[in-house]
Amino acid sequence: MDCQKHRFNLPAGVHYLNCASRGPFSRAVEAAGIEAIGNTTSQIHHLTATDFFEPAWEVRRLFANLIQASDPERVALVPSVSYAMSIVARNLPHKAGFARGQKIILLEGEFPSDVYAWERVAAEQGLTLQTVPMPLHHETGKVWNKTILTAIDSQTAMIVCPHVHWMYGFIFDLPAISVRAKEVGAWLIVDGTQSVGAFPFDFGKIQPDVLVCAGYKWLMGPYSLGLAYFNETFDDGIPLEETWMARQESHHFHTLTDYQATYRPKAYRYNVGEHSHFIQLPILKAALEQVLAWGPENIQAYCRELLKDAIPVLQHAGYHLEPEPYRAHHLVGVRLPVGQDVAGIQKMLSDNRVLVSARGQGLRVSPQVYNTPEDVEALVDALAKG
User: Fold this and answer.
1) For 262-283, what is the mean pLDDT?
2) Is the model's pLDDT at 34 over the cut of 90?
3) Which CATH class is domain 5-17+295-385?
4) Domains of the chain by residue range
5) Cα–Cα dist 227/267, whole Å
6) What is the DSSP string of 327-357?
7) Which residues partner with 327 through β-bridges?
8) CA-CA distance, 340 to 335, in Å (whole number)?
9) Is 70 exceeded by the pLDDT of residue 386?
């Protein structure tokens, strides 16, 4: 695909290689937000009961399409990854085959929202948290995938794993991990925040029990609104909150005090309260339409082409990058030699108007379709100068 920089209002002279921190709005997404603000103020007299429900359904359908899932009724609107993880933690004790003494498998150095939810449920339910360490190896992704599969055994209740590592861009073999998890009756919980939208996700092959994505990174949408897919295991589960919209007949405003005992089907009960979000939803809808029009496969190909000449130069300069096929192209960890000051190098790059993230012992370089070869050249030149 061609560069899409013309669709964005990015400032001239700034080399923003940091979509993994926050994806900027395109002009179309900005326009959707401005229109939504107008509709919420000057056009408020046109608001109907349908406006509380249908825009959210449109977003669910778009997200289901993006992850190649057939049932948008299993998609819920959540404010954050931690919210969805808390839903899982609340329902884990009711999982089929659950027993004290089982373990939850996590990955070393995972994002905190994928970790904190399990400490309390593990203490309350007598579970063990097993963290699979990141191997020190020149082929970290390949070796790490093998050790994860080895760790999954008959005592595993659940594994929490991303598709792409949030710091270094390692690709995890979710189809193989899913097969192994199902063999032992374990749940697979996937944080797709750093992959879905820019990296293809085949729901039929992966079949996670839960997939959750924040909306403000590779979905290119707003902060504080994300999406989560819950499979049939959660159809009769316990929500975090008892929002009125989750109950049957909630669209009939004149009978809301005819209190309903029955939830709307499938994942609807897991929606955050006030999920109508009259401003945020139109923004997320426009962003999802944009990402679908580009296509995650095309985004990967664009980013691969963008970085292909820079990678051997960086490697020759002493930086380590994971070899293919375990390296994503939209999120690349440029690991520094031991002893180098990661934060200092990031500041040097920022002073040169090259924006990346310092994560762990590396720089997280995360291009998108608005980036140009000049952005990558600025990164390489600044690192070469030190």
Assistant:
1) 96
2) yes
3) alpha beta
4) 5-17+295-385, 34-291
5) 11
6) B-SSSEEEEPPTT--HHHHHHHHHHTTEE-E
7) 170
8) 10
9) no
Residues 368, 378: Cα–Cα separation, whole Å: 15
Topology (CATH) of 34-291: Aspartate Aminotransferase; domain 2 (3.40.640)
Tens-place pLDDT, residues 49-89: 888 889 999 999 999 999 999 999 999 999 999 999 999 99
pLDDT tens digits for range 143-191? 999 999 999 999 999 999 999 999 999 999 999 999 999 999 999 999 9
Q: Cα(215)–Cα(221) distance, rounded to whole angstroms?
A: 5
103 three-class SS: strand
d(CA 304, CA 241): 43
Indicate the pairing of strand 156-162 with strand 187-191: parallel
Antiparallel, parallel or unpaired: β 226-230 and 210-214: antiparallel
For residue 283, give Cα distances in angstroms to 73, 220, 237, 277, 304: 21, 9, 30, 10, 28
